[in-house]
Protein: Endoribonuclease YSH1
Organism: Maudiozyma humilis
Amino acid sequence: MSTQLSNTSFKFIALGAGNEVGRSCHILQYKGKTIMLDAGVHPAYQGMASLPFYDDFDLSTVDILLISHFHLDHAASLPYVMQRTNFKGRVFMTHPTKAIYRWLLRDFVRVTSIGENSILDKDDNLYTDEDLVESFDKIETIDYHSTVDVNGIKFTAFHAGHVLGAAMFQIEIAGLRVLFTGDYSRELDRHLNSAEVPPLPSDVLIVESTFGTATHEPRLNREKKLTQVIHSTVSKGGRVLMPVFALGRAQEIMLILEEYWTQHAEDLGGSQVPIYYASDLARKCMNVFQTYVNMMNDDIRKKFRDSQTNPFIFKHISYLKNLDEFQDFGPSVMLASPGMLQSGISRELLEKWCPEEKNLVLVTGYSVEGTMAKYIMLEPETIPAANNPDITIPRRCQVEEISFAAHVDFQENLEFIEKINATNIILVHGESNPMGRLKSALLSNFSSLKGTPGEVHVYNPRNSVDVVLEYKGIKIARALGNIVDEIQKDNIENLKVEDVTKQEAAAEIKDANEDEVIVSGILVSDEKNFDLNLVSLTDLREHHTELSATVLKERQTIAVNCKPELVYWHISQMFGDVTVLEDSANVSIKPDETNIAKKEEEHADISDDILVMQIMGDVQVTVKSNLATVEWTQGLINDTIADSIVAILMSVDSAPASVKMSSKSCSHEHGHDHEEGEADVDITHASKIQQIVKLFKEQFGESFVLSLEDKKEDAKTPEAIKGKITIGKNIADINFSEMRIEQCNSNPLKGRIESIMSIGSDLVSTLC
Ligand SMILES: [Zn+2]
Ligand SMILES: [Zn+2]
């Protein structure tokens, strides 16, 4: 199923919750990292059939698994993944999610195991209590708003509303940020905060689409409707069955009922009408809700502070461990699990109460396709008995749906999506039709951006179908140390770098701001964690102790069969700018014939004298004992200069000027006629100029005129070689002897001339 990914591809696969609600499980892949989001079961199926399509993906490649919240459609197959597959990644969830998960899944194991009216074979159980215990210990917990880094995958949990402990995850890999909403709610309710918008933007948004384009009625209206319909049912002696998921929204409904019962005690005939919650699990988890009151909204925290009592301990609501303790005499309100009416207490009560017209089934949660909760809303004539599908039970009871499912409606979702501002939106957790409608609505909402860089793409992938997005990855380098001071006045922390490759690369970084600041330093790329740091050379050790700066030095030694003064003379003729660092024989001071003659008298064939020269700033030549050593720091310019010097050193004893210079010393033997000593001393310089002039002729053609008047008149003080370029009104006078522009009235032309001169110098430097 998985295709080979290029380095710039981001891949998304829904192993579950693609065009459906249930068995949430998504895979993200980018830059060789694999993240799994949620591991749920499908409430409409049982056993292996309820699992996400785990066979379609190699779970052993998953680095981390993030669980958004404790609902079974997001978390119930986690022990299976951890204990029964080749998965070996790390698992994270928030503290409250883990606390509730423990109780919830134990209950899930019990409910789905044989003995609980189940038609399942024992082998069909997804996992055992032991699996649950073992996996539980391996689950790591995270706090909201703190960022965890696992080998370059950074993720941060944000409040998602929905249920206690529910988290959104913003995941960052190599600068690409993906936000996964999980199930989320933007409505402030009685106990939870609404979902947050993460402060950093996201490139990809994976968002739930449960309600598609539907609009929720205002919260107050729904509360009013709920209490009214319950009140009127019990007033007529009827029973109200509210199928709820054990934890989460049930607590919210209970807070509403508790408040209403307190305020309307008299209308309800004192405390004559009991409210029950048939969930031992919910009772056990009350301490979890108490523990995490600090993670709920201000309202509930204030209630807790003021009364010093747990707001989840209710006066008007009693817990039932099971139906054996329930005496079904008159009107009552019953909250019962499971929420989908598939089996268990809620189903038992449904079958018992649905034949009576005065009773009411009140659905407050989201009903998954294919479940009894969904079916009953069609108000069928009969329903099948859970234990025996051949038996049908007449349905005459009332059926109402008032949703308190904490999922966003279209308007809330759209507002949130606009705030996230991602250009790629992947829809999950929605039945095909609402999801499709949401996709169309989003596309039309963002249609004005079509064809612009901000164009919004919306995907509604089916299970196991890849969505591949290309991210070329604008890389952000973090500036550290000295370099920050360099650029601080422009207050730039993040620099955009076009392309970065290996472990270390010296780079010139261009900032994308209007005021461009160019800084240079060493770009250190941590391939594992995708961190890019820009540091100055001197800071490298401090920030990256594992790295050391190596400056590549080159050295070349050449035998020179001549005196050091000859070497000095040739090099200074060629480069002019020669700094003498050491000169024990003072050859650089008087490189004249007197000196040479004097040296001749001393007759030191192999002298210990040392001459050290620095040429063009960075190339060093050491002449000692007839050996010349050239040393330089690698670099384009230095390499070129060094090449020229080596060329000079290799030809120094055969050059005509050398012959002249050394004619009296005669310290070496070669076949040159001494008469050649008459040659112009400037021959190398002159030939260099000629080459450059040639280049100018080629470049400027007829626009270039050379003036060489009186050139040969006096060889000892040669006339400067000059040239003139005339292009329309633009005129430039060039002195080639001094290699400078005497005057030029056009900056572009001047720049062009300068670059030709510089190219020319490089080109001809080795020719002499
Ligand atoms: Zn949920
Ligand atoms: Zn869900």
Residues 332 and 477 are 64 Å apart (CA to CA). Residues 24, 71, 73-74, 183, 429 surround zinc ion (ligand 2) (CB under 6 Å).
